[in-house]
Amino acid sequence: MRAPAMQVRRADFDACLSLPFTVLGVRIRDHALTHLEFLPLGTPSRASGDVLVADLAAQLRAYLADPAYRFDLPFELHGTPFRQRVWQALMQIPVGETRAYGDIARQLDSSPRAVGQALGDNPLPIVVPCHRVVSSAGLGGFNHHASGAAVEIKRWLLRHERAI
Predict the structure, then answer these.
(1) Are both 92 and 45 inside the same structural domain?
(2) Is 16 part of the annotated catalytic residue set?
(3) Which of 38, 70, 144, 151 has the most other CB atoms within 10 Å of its CB?
C-alpha cells in the first residue's frame, strides 16, 4: 500500500508563489526571508501584502528573465556553524558553473556526505544556490531527494543557468 501524499497547507506559508517549475512556499520572520519550500505544481498560489514577498516575487521574475540576476533580499539562515560555512560557500559559486560535493568538502575540510546533508537542509534554495552542487558521477540529489520532482527542479535550474 502506498503512503498518502503529504497535504500541503497554504496556511503554513506567508505566500505561495507560482514559478514555471514549482510553487514556492515562502516564510518570513521579522522582515527577513527565512524559508523557501518547493511545493507541488498545482498548489494554489497565494499572494501577500508583505513588501518583502512582493520584492521576492519581483526578484524571482528578474532571475527567470536573466539567470545572472543576483538576489538582494534580507534573509536569515539558521543552522549550525558548519551549515553556515557550507551555505556561504554556495554563494561563491558563479551562475553557469557547478561544483562537486567533494570540491566543497575539500574547501571546508569536511566530507561530501556532510556537505550533502547541509545542502539538503538549505532553507533558502534558489537564493542560496545549492542546485549548483553536483555529484562527481552526475547530477546528484536535491533537497534530500535522489530522484523525482526535486531532482527535476534542480535540472531545470541548472539548464536555466546554462550550467548543464
Answers:
(1) no
(2) no
(3) 38
